[in-house]
Amino acid sequence: MRLKSSLVATAAALATVMIPLVASPAAAASGTEQWVSTNSYYGRMVLNWRVNPYRLDPIQITAQDRATDGYVVGIRLVTNGESGHRVWKMRTVPSGQTTASWTTSLEAGWIDNAYFEVCKIGASSGVIASCEASTVMVNPFDDSSM
User: Fold this and answer.
1) % of the chain residues with pLDDT over 90
2) Which of 26, 41, 85, 104 has a CA 20 to 30 Å removed from the CA of 14?
3) How many CB atoms lie within 10 A of CB 98?
C-alpha cells in the first residue's frame, strides 16, 4: 500500500513539472473584449488571440437591434496585420429577431490589431447608413519573440 501511494505521489509531482515544459506555444491564448452601444443597437466581440499558428479562435460575436426604425443591424470585424487592412464579412441580425450571436474563428497570419463596426443598414435597400467602430483591440502577443 505504501509503494502504491508513493507511486501516485511521484506521478503527480512529475506531471506538475513536465506539463508546463511540454506545453507548446499553441496553448498560449489571451482574450480581449469590446462593445458598442447606442439606443438603436448594441454590438460585442470577444477575440481570443492565439499563436502557432496565428489565429483568432474563438471569436464570439453578438449584435442586437434595439429599434424598429426601418434598419437592420450588422456587425463586421476589421483587422490590420501581415495581410494588410482587411474588412471581413458583415453579419446581420435576421429579420424578425432582435438579437443574434455567432462563434467563429479566423486564421489570417499575424494580426497586429482588430476592431469591429456595428452598422445600420437600410432594410429595403441594403445600403449601409452608418457605422460605429469599437475601440481597437491590440494583439497581446509580441511578434518579435514568436
Assistant:
1) 73
2) 26
3) 14
122, 70 in Cβ contact below 8 A? yes
Cα–Cα distances in angstroms (integers) from residue 35 to residues 32, 50, 64, 85, 113, in the given order: 11, 21, 11, 21, 16
Is residue 16 exposed (0-12), middle (13-18) or buried (19+ Cβ within 10 Å)?
exposed
* Residue 24, CA distances (Å) to 16, 29, 107, 124 in order: 16, 11, 18, 50
One-character DSSP codes across 39-58 = SSEEEEEEEEEETTTTEEEE
Asked if residue 78 lies in contact with residue 114, where contact means CB atoms within 8 angstroms, the answer is: yes
How confident is residue 144, by pLDDT bands cut at 50, 70 and 90? Answer: low
Q: What is the pLDDT of residue 9?
A: 46
User: Distance of CA 55 to CAs 15, 31, 75, 111, 133, Å?
Assistant: 29, 12, 20, 8, 22
- Digit-coded pLDDT (tens) for 58-76: 999 999 999 999 999 999 9
- What is the predicted pLDDT for the residue at 52? 85
Cα radius of gyration (the chain): 21
